Amino acid sequence: MRMREAKPSTPSAGSRRARAAAFEAEALGSLDSLYRTALRLTRNPADAEDLVQDTYLKAFRAADRFEPGTNLRAWLFTILHNTARNRARDRAREAVTVDSETVERAMDVPSSGTAETPETLLLRDTLAPDLQAAIDDLPDAFRQAVWLRDVEEFSYAEIAEMLDIPVGTVMSRISRGRRMLFERLQHLKPVNA
Questions:
Q1: Model-level pTM?
Q2: I need a labelling partner for 164 at 20 to 30 A (CA). Which of 115, 143, 184, 187 fits?
Q3: Taking Cα atoms as reference points, which of 117, 145, 118, 111 lies closest to residue 40?
Q4: Interacting residues of 136 by C-beta distance below 8 A, sequence separation 6+
Q5: How confident is the model over 130-142, as pLDDT tens digits?
Q6: Residue 4: its pLDDT value, please?
Q7: CA distances from 55 to 28, 66, 83 (A)
Q8: Which segments of the chain belong to CATH 1.10.10.10?
């Protein structure tokens, strides 16, 4: 009995697999920075993880539409911001029902604190508590713009595309956000400086 020889895969199939592997490797290289930004947007580690997971799910599903040679990291951050914006819009539409008895029972239960993830521990240790608090106190629009520029180091044009706003608005938000941070952190300046 003769066995059929396996046909070698066509070059296009091999190159597609190679492109897919390269896309996956480059996309997963942005995981930490996407998580940090998601944590800034949601202010909740579980929601941030869900947001990053949805971002990667959407990115991998649309990987064939990504144009090689363009900025993958900016594309992922655009997906992240659009997904966060859609979630916020959906949450705003949901009806809020409050059971006063449940609220009162919850107030009586001592809080055990939230579980610290390695990422939140790193962020807390990296940013001084005063700076962390000042960043957290910024209004969302300013916090996003300052974070994307000063921490994630995106260009003004990339931030404008991610947030779907004009470049001038990005520049204004970054300037005003930095000014707010400066004013909030002014008390930390050494006396002799």
A1: 0.54
A2: 184
A3: 145
A4: 43, 143
A5: 777 888 889 989 9
A6: 43
A7: 11, 14, 7
A8: 127-193
d(CA 133, CA 106): 26
Q: By the 8 A CB rule, do 167 and 156 touch? A: yes
What DSSP assignment string belongs to 122-173?
Answer: HHHHHS-HHHHHHHHHS-HHHHHHHIIIIIS---HHHHHHHHTS-HHHHHHH
Residues sharing a CB contact under 8 Å with residue 180, sequence separation 6 or more, in sequence order: 134, 138, 142
Contact at 8 Å (CB) between 160 and 169?
Answer: yes
CATH number of 127-193: 1.10.10.10
Candidate CATH numbers 1.10.1740.10, 1.25.40.10, 1.10.520.20, 3.40.50.12780; the one for domain 15-92: 1.10.1740.10
* Mean pLDDT in residue range 36-63: 93
Q: pLDDT for 20-45, tens place per residue?
A: 888 888 889 999 999 999 998 898 99
107-121 pLDDT, tens digit each: 555 544 555 666 555
